[in-house]
Amino acid sequence: MKSRIAIIVLSLILVIPALSGIVKTQINYDIFAYLPEKLPSVQGQNIMNKVFGFGGTGILMVKNQTDVEVENLKRKLEQVDGVETVNWITDIADLAVPREFLPEELVDQFYSGNSTIMQIQFEEEAASEKTHYAVQEIKNILGPNTYFAGTPPMLSELRQLLESEKFVYAVSAIGFILLLLGLTLPSLFIPFLILFSIGVSIIYNLGLAYYLNGSMSYVTAAIAGALQLGVTMDFSIFLVHRYEEERKTKEKNEAMIAAIKHTAMAILTSSATAVAGFLAMVTMSLGLGEDLGMTMARGILLSVLMILTLLPSFILVFDKWIREYQHRVMIPNFHLLAKFVTNRHKLVFVVFLLLFIPAFLGFKNVHIVYDLEQLMPKTLPSIQNLDEIKKEFTSTDSAFLVMDSKISDQERLKIKQQIGEIDGIKKVIGYDTFADPAIPSEFVPENLKNMFIKDQYNYMLVQMEYGSYDERTTRAIQQINKLTEPYEGHMYLTGQAVLQNDLTTTVRDDMKKVDVISVVAVFLIIALAFRSVALPVVLVGGIELAILFNQGLDFYLGRSMPFIGTFAIGAIQLGSTINYAILLVTRYKEELMNYPKEEAMYRAITASGEAILSSALALFAAVIGIWLFSDITLLRDLTFMIARGAIISLAVILFLLPAVLLTLESFISKTTFGWPKAKSMKEDETLSELSLN
């Protein structure tokens, strides 16, 4: 209160380095970059990148052009800064040699009808800055009848799309939140102060990413700001409501002191559950979880700091304008809902238990999409080009088997033969495919040797018969991994299909880990806060029902769930919406000191319903704009699930949870230290009292 001007000035000064950090933060668009380094596929990919210059691989199909024209195009592409090599048939055979004299498997590798295909190897990873600009230059070179696809162009296009949409995400979040707060808060001026205060904390959070890590994933960059706004909005609402209540009987300074004193503990307790949910993602093997989880946990702490310092300072400075622009709050009351739930709580409790059945069945049977290409916009040119390429070259999916010099020629040839016999493998191509092992090395063209052998390493190209996400491809990869087990540390299977398979396995393992850790952490926080055994079970059980319904609802709607929803939704929804349940229980406990349990619950619902509704709608409003305006399927699906989860949690807490608390009142009373003993009242007297209210 005394330092409000200093707080405002210091907060605004710190925005400058934070904005600088935001500008300098590198955005990583490659999900595979977050796979754990211990995986053989990642280790093999690192060798391919460093030794063979396979930082990123693009595919270029050229239609209806002569070999001479294609060769000229190849030479132009090789001059692009950021391109390591362009692999085409002329690296192995002279164009002067007629095609009919070349090995059939070599011709099939590069030609199909009037189309030919080449691979463009980039110097750096597919998501790097240098590769991005190389992709742009390549697109400027390419003319008609060319189809450029692969991870580098896809990530480059994704980057351009996200950069063009991020402003829309921010504007939509601000617009929807202002509309919501304008309807639910008593002053038209307060919403702007709340948004500015939390906005400063968001800028701090995103700027700190540069000073702490230097980069963040595109998923985090896209949703972190909106999610931080939605999750922490209710903390500011707690403070504002209490300040308005205190302001009726006190002058502004005393009112603010009282408001902070009475809400600080509630805000800190509520924020602890949200932080715990997000920190659970930090334990994931997939680095994307740590990136999003740590960013959000840090963001919540920064928001709490600003809500308890900057927001009160703004309110005190602008109190005159707040009083001037007062209006009637437009929130429905909850009397009818409270009356229905309290009068029929045993029936509603049975419904609560029965709902776990369809929720669990939907969760277990929902189709989860791990295919990153399916989660990309279909409008991306690279995605459309890939569809055209697959019409001519049915198998564009491949893997690389990387070996060091410890593997003998005999062992290499044996492995090659065994892999070629596996169902789902189209062919295995390596140095031995084009050069007989009996021919002395000095008689083999240097470009052929350099293509497959470098610095004590060599590799073979394993072409898949089916797509990367086909179950038969997964089985083939598993069989190859078994063959390479005896050569662990000397032989690595890698490539897009293998990395995708490892992503699927990693996410499935992480999902179980995150669920357990987040539930245990939130359980312990509630147990300590309420000194209870029963309440953590009841509250976490209620939110888990909401989470199961949210994740399983897509099964009943005939939709698919993105893989990120398997771990992110549980942690986000549990950590952010458990606060609504805590608010209801806190008020119920308070009312139990003076009223029988039914009337106490009736009063708790009517008193806390407005705050719970506002909080849930704030989270909904903050992220729904991304779903409405984004063309990126992964972001649309994730934010839609977050928004939907807020509404489902709202329904569970206001409709089902009160019935559970009333039905289990005796059990809660016996297992909770300091729980008020409910007063007794005849049922007809209770109903009469409720009707009067």
UniProtKB/TrEMBL annotation:
Protein name stated in the entry: SSD domain-containing protein
Localization terms from the record: Cell membrane
Membrane topology: Multi-pass membrane protein
Transmembrane segments annotated in the record for this chain: 167-185, 192-212, 218-243, 264-288, 300-318, 347-370, 516-549, 561-585, 605-629, 641-664
Domain SSD: 195-317
Pfam families, per database record: MMPL
Keyword tags: Cell membrane, Membrane, Transmembrane, Transmembrane helix
Annotated GO CC locations: plasma membrane
Major localization listed first in the record, in broad terms: membrane
Lineage top rank: taxon: Bacteria
Record bears the keyword S-adenosyl-L-methionine: no
